[in-house]
């Protein structure tokens, strides 16, 4: 209870002291709310044609309709939900991989480290999107979980690299020596002592991974290699591209999904950046 | 010299593993591309030939055709033999014949597409780099209204997906203002020549893809440059110079020199990301580069073409990385020492 109250107080302090964090959290919360309560407040089927093609925004259809006469706002609500979900889950997988690969390599050193660093560097050298395109094309039908997995296994390398370098500086601190003297096993020290000390860092990278995964998913979907059978923000863009929304001048169709992708990833970056300033005093000097 | 060898060794190893992946991955895919090719020929024969006997193939003939192709693409041999022959062919840049564009050679197809990709990427990267660094430094130096307008613009442009920016550009300049055509790097009727008309035609089709690759880069570079300049301007030496009464412009010049270094290292990373990121832009604009080609190859399960495209993309990325490493080691000797000292 005491701890929770302390956390709340700290969060409120952080929000008040950093306008950037405030803006980031506000935008991101707006989209989370849109995805969560949107379908309840605006119960329109995003797939059902309403026989009015390419209607510009009106009171009945806040964001108009697409070429098949489907409601764009309803699509946006569902798209936001799936984009956030895919981004979040992919970031979970990527972060676990990043922590384990970077952490184990950095902490144990030696041959394991050389091997893991090599794998990380190779992944960093190979263009992610090219790999994703090839992998995604394997599956004729791609469930959201397949896409989540693919995004997860292509997003981790930069995190692994950073975690490794952080571990290198942490593992020579006194508290690690103390733990060793207490006879704790190496794995236990790594996961119980060292990693919790990097929690802020891990959370920041996790947030960054969500942004990266959301943008990657949108890119895959935009060229038709995203999840099949669901609506994500990238999928709406895909339809707008395939059915040439621009040729009809239907700005209400292609601007909102792209704007949402941009704002979501921008808000996550702002949160990440603000947290960096809060936890890393050296970064505070530059505004 | 040791530094160079070590780096070169690492890149060679990465390259080897990457192209092995390019060989392995398509083979794990379900589906049979040769059957598809055979079906296409059969379908074309029945549709086009009609009554003529040449267009109609008996079942055994279809089977023979199928087996002939399986042999030609070496898909009947054991996997390890296929792999070794693939590696051997990589050295001579011979990726065989495309299945989708049968019987055109993969090397030929790639040679046709690569210039388009590079013609888009290299100028966009260079212009974007200079413009981004200039604007970033400007925003950091002038602060005030410049910063308030430019900084959010940088952030927004850097985070927005390339292809979406492209759609907006097409909408504004193609649909609304009608300055540029909607999509395609050239008209279907276009034949290349060095006349003024031809150049104008290419430029008209080139501008929008160019802008959509360049603008996000300007944003990214500017954000980095702005932060670096702010940091440098607040550091001890800058304060000292200021207290000595140096001209602010002169301090900025010092700060710029220090700040440009990390920006140089960012270049290969961006180059790598952009060469891949371009896939989406190219597909969206119907721009005939490597990205579009890889996309088509993947959809058509064209093993040789996938291998060729992936090989090219990885090669360009790794060569770019290596060149920048060299450049960086040359600019900043500490990097070289750090790399050797770590081991």
Summarize the structure.
The complex is a heterodimer of chains A (287) and B (343). Chain A is mainly alpha-helical and 287 residues long. Chain A has helices at residues 2-17, 19-41, 72-108, 110-125, 128-137, 144-155, 157-170, 174-181, 186-197, 199-222, 233-242, 251-279, 281-284.
Descriptive tags:
heterodimer, A: 287 residues, mainly alpha, MetI-like fold, 0% strand, B: 343 residues, 13 helices, 79% helix
Protein model, in words:
The complex is a heterodimer of chains A (287) and B (343). By secondary structure, chain A is mainly α. Chain A has a single domain (22-34, 64-286), classed as Orthogonal Bundle (MetI-like fold), CATH 1.10.3720. Chain A is built from 13 helices and no strands. In chain A, helix 1 crosses helix 2, helix 6 crosses helix 10 and helix 11 packs antiparallel against helix 12 (251-279). The mean pLDDT of chain A is 81. Chain B has 343 residues and is mostly helical. Chain B has 13 helices and no strands. In chain B, helix 2 (33-49) packs across helix 3, helix 5 packs parallel to helix 12 and helix 8 (196-233) crosses helix 10. Chain B starts with a helix and ends with a helix. Residues 47-54 and 184-191 of chain B have low confidence and may be disordered. Chains A and B meet through helix 4, helix 5, helix 10, helix 11 and helix 12 of A and helix 1, helix 6, helix 7, helix 8 and helix 10 of B.
Shape of chain A: globular
From the spread of the alpha carbons, the general shape of chain B counts as elongated
CATH topology of chain A: MetI-like fold
Question: Tally the helices of chain A: what do you get?
Answer: 13
Mean pLDDT of chain B: 74
Q: What fraction of residues of chain B sit in β-strands?
A: under 5%
Q: What's the CATH class label of chain A? A: Mainly Alpha
Taking all Cα atoms into account, the compactness measure Rg of chain A is: 22 Å
């Amino acid at each position: 209870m005491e701890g929770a109250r302390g956390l709340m107080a700290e969060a409120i302090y952080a929000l008040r002291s950093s306008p950037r964090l405030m803006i980031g959290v506000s935008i991101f919360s707006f989209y989370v709310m849109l995805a969560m309560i949107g379908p309840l407040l605006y119960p329109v089927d995003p797939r059902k044609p309403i026989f009015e093609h390419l209607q510009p925004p009106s009171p009945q259809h806040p964001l108009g309709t697409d070429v098949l006469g489907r409601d764009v706002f309803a699509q946006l609500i569902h798209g936001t939900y799936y984009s956030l979900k895919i981004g979040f889950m992919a970031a979970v997988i990527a972060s676990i991989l990043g922590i384990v690969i970077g952490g184990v390599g950095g902490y144990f050193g030696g041959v394991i480290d050389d091997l893991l660093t090599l794998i990380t560097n190779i992944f960093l050298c190979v263009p992610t999107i090219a790999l994703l395109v090839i992998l995604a094309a394997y599956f004729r039908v791609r469930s959201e979980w397949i896409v989540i997995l693919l995004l997860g296994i292509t997003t981790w390398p930069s995190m692994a690299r950073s975690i490794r370098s952080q571990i290198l500086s942490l593992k020579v601190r006194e508290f690690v020596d103390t733990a060793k003297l207490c006879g704790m096993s190496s794995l236990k020290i790594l996961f119980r002592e060292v990693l919790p000390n990097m929690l802020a860092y891990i959370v920041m990278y996790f947030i960054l991974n969500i942004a990266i995964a959301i943008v990657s998913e949108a890119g895959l979907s935009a060229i038709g290699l995203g999840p099949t059978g669901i609506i994500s923000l990238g999928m709406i863009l895909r339809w707008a591209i395939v059915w040439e929304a621009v040729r009809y001048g239907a700005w209400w169709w292609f601007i909102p999904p792209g704007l949402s992708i941009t704002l979501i990833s921008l808000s996550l970056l702002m949160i990440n950046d603000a947290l960096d300033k809060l936890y890393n005093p050296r970064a505070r000097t530059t505004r | 010299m040791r530094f160079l060898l070590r780096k070169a060794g690492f890149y060679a190893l990465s390259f080897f593993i990457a192209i092995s992946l390019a060989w392995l991955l398509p083979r794990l895919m379900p589906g049979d591309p040769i059957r598809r090719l055979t079906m296409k020929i059969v379908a074309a024969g029945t549709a086009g030939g009609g009554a003529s006997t040449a267009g109609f193939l008996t079942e055994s003939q279809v089977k023979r055709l199928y087996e002939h192709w399986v042999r030609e693409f070496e898909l009947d041999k054991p996997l390890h033999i296929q792999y070794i022959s693939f590696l051997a062919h990589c050295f001579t840049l011979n990726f065989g014949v495309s299945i989708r564009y049968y019987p055109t050679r993969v090397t030929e197809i790639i040679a046709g597409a690569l210039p388009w990709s590079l013609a888009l990427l290299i100028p966009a990267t260079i212009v974007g780099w200079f413009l981004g660094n200039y604007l970033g430094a400007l925003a950091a130096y002038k602060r005030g209204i410049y910063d308030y307008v430019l900084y959010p613009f940088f952030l927004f442009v850097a985070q927005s997906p390339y292809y979406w920016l492209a759609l907006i550009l097409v909408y504004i300049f193609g649909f609304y203002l009608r300055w540029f055509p909607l999509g395609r790097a050239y008209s279907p009727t276009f034949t290349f020549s060095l006349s003024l008309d031809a150049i104008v035609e290419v430029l008209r089709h080139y501008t929008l893809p160019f802008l959509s690759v360049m603008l996000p880069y300007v944003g990214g570079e500017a954000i980095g440059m702005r932060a670096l300049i702010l940091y440098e301007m607040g550091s001890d030496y800058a304060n000292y110079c200021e207290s000595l009464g140096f001209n602010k412009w002169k301090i900025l010049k010092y700060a710029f020199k220090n700040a440009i270094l990390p920006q140089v290292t960012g270049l290969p990373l961006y180059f790598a990301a952009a060469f891949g990121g371009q896939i989406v832009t190219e597909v969206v604009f119907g721009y005939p580069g490597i990205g579009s080609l890889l996309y088509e190859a993947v959809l058509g399960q064209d093993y040789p073409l996938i291998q060729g495209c992936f090989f090219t993309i990885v090669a360009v990325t790794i060569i770019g990385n290596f060149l920048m490493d060299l450049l960086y080691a040359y600019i900043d000797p500490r990097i070289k020492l750090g790399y050797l000292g770590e081991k």
